[in-house]
UniProtKB/TrEMBL annotation:
PROSITE patterns: LD_TPASE, PROKAR_LIPOPROTEIN. It holds the Pfam family YkuD. The active site is at 242 (proton donor/acceptor), 258 (nucleophile). GO terms for molecular function: peptidoglycan L,D-transpeptidase activity; transferase activity. This is Murein L,D-transpeptidase. GO terms for cellular component: extracellular region. Belongs to the YkuD family. It comes from Gelidibacter gilvus. Keywords: Cell shape, Cell wall biogenesis/degradation, Peptidoglycan synthesis, Transferase. Transmembrane segments: none annotated. CDD domains: YkuD_like. InterPro entries: LD-transpeptidase, LD_TPept_cat_dom, Transpep_catalytic_dom.
Amino acid sequence: MKNISVFILSLTLMGCVNSHKTNNEKEEIVKTSKVEKPIVPIEITINKDVPIHSYFKWMDSIVATHNRTHNYAIDEYLIVHHNKWIIDTLANTDYYYLMDKGIFNEDSQALIALKKDQVLIIPDSLETLDLRAQLSNTYLELNIPEFRLRIIQDEKEVYKFPVRVGKVGKKYMVMAKGHVDMRTKTGIGEIIRVNKEPTFANPVTNSKYKKTVRDDGKVTALPAIPWLEPSINGVRVGQLIHPTTNLGTLGRASSNGCIGLRESHAWIVYYYAPLGTKVVSKYELHGTDDHGEPVKFKDIYPGFESLK
């Protein structure tokens, strides 16, 4: 009888142990499933071709819909930096890039920015934080006598573009209602305005135009690339960063004060310089060439360096 009691007690204890183990296994399964559950990316399949002239409105609609239906916000810059092929596509609409391939295009706004059936991947909340951090650690740096605009991210140069800068001299400009020193100004500021629908006008006469004559003599429509306006030392000086349709003016003091880039480079600068991006405009005669060798640049604004 005593042996039977011991046997029953042993079975009872074993049952308790097995039951406890089963509960632990179930708990472990639940924990594991929570950890390993994959994040399903948000994908948007483009349902029709989107030309450049409709591109910004299309992007705005995507951003608005997402921000209305999700608990974290995105913007156009975050979408594009998460799908960097978009920058390449837009940059490749550059008139001179296409001409080098034997393609004449009279109106870049009619070119396709996004093709039907292409897929955009929307960044998740963590990816959004990372992208915002990258852009917040990005700034533009212009060295006037070098005719170079750099994009600096995390204190490293990621792009360097040839530019044109302001001429030497003063001129009366109807747009400014007075005489203007056309030399590009130095100082530190930030992007205070992004104009996605710029009006092209001659600042001297304030006369508007919608066509441009290219370096090869061909006449085309104007590009729909946003213009950026930085403040300099807290002041709006009318010194815009925008595309030029004439590559022959790059590397020269040939503008009315603005910083001009080729179209492909203007697209890239736009996407690395949202509102609030720091802008440094300097006048340094000593630097390095493309091979890292020391070089002294031509003093295009005599006496300007001493004003720093």
